[in-house]
Amino acid sequence: MLLLRLGVVRGGRGLLELQRVCHLHRSAHTAPNLEYKPIKKVLVANRGEIAIRVFRACTELGIRTVAVYSEQDTGQMHRQKADEAYLIGKGLAPVAAYLDIPDIIRVAKANDVDAIHPGYGFLSERSDFAQACVDAGIRFIGPAPEVVRKMGDKVEARAIAIRAGVPVVPGTDGPIPSLKEAQDFAKTYGFPVIFKAAYGGGGRGMRVVRKFEELEENYERAYSEALTAFGNGALFVEKFIEKPRHIEVQILGDKYGNVIHLYERDCSIQRRHQKVVEIAPAAQLDPHLRDRLTSDSVNLAKQVGYENAGTVEFLVDKTGKHYFIEVNSRLQVEHTVTEEITDGFVVLIAGLMKTVAQTQLRQEGRGQQL
């Protein structure tokens, strides 16, 4: 196969290297019994900017596009930019319409859609939606349903990172059943510590605690926030890293277990644990640290058989030690920043990875089915 390492970015960072190695590995996580036929029509289960971006890419590839829209979005731009557009969630509120999995699948099947792209937000990290696509015989443009489920569970994602040899922040191995476990953890590792929602993100259900007497109040508040936001108040507790850099690595994987990275973005400028500014490449990042971050990201993705675009996020402390925090198993808003520094090489890589996959299919005697 071809193992690709992107080394060209704006400003001149190295060269694009192609290295031949011996084996092609099929991902063990590929959904069974789903025939991957040529993609001729893609439905985007989303709205606005991300839907339009996907439509543009499909049009450039000669793929027909399908938009879905709520009753309130009849005049929205994404509906006008697609070749076809269909109403979903009739009678539902705007957000609820885009979360109506049965209706989205109904529209896709009724109009001969080959693949569904979830965009970001809405259903993009819902394993039940990915599974619904597979069950309907429609290709889900994203990771396999089981991978989406694992990466959406912060506790399980942490355990996977440990198995992959990726450093993690000291923390509990699973959701804590009561305040007592948090107290015991704080006695062992010291303050500050942070509570995190086990089944959500976006800064909700997160509370930093700096004193023992503040543990109980913050535990209760974090639990309540997580329960309200995600329907599950489960929390885990970690040692809080003071004033870290927040670095994330963009990855791409195919269904044969091949994974590449597209370097890093620095998203340290945040407000209430939510990113405000993204910078790529990260300024004044030690080259050896960059190599460790990108290598760990690729290893983690291979550990779970990751397919499609994704982002592996890390914290880097004042001493230069890095710690895994989570995987975003979807396309991100910030992907455009990576596109800016990689120019056309993303297209080159995608073409090469497709060629590798087609070669494998021919070797298996199944012809060209991509």
UniProtKB/TrEMBL annotation:
Signal peptide: none annotated. One of its GO terms (molecular function) is pyruvate carboxylase activity. One of its GO terms (cellular component) is cytoplasm. One of its GO terms (biological process) is gluconeogenesis. Residues 38-370 form the Biotin carboxylation domain. PROSITE patterns: ATP_GRASP, BC. Residues 158-357 form the ATP-grasp domain. The keyword Nucleotide-binding applies. Keywords: ATP-binding, Biotin, Ligase, Nucleotide-binding. Pfam families: Biotin_carb_N, CPSase_L_D2. The keyword Transferase does not apply. PANTHER family: PYRUVATE CARBOXYLASE, PYRUVATE CARBOXYLASE, MITOCHONDRIAL. This is Pyruvate carboxylase.
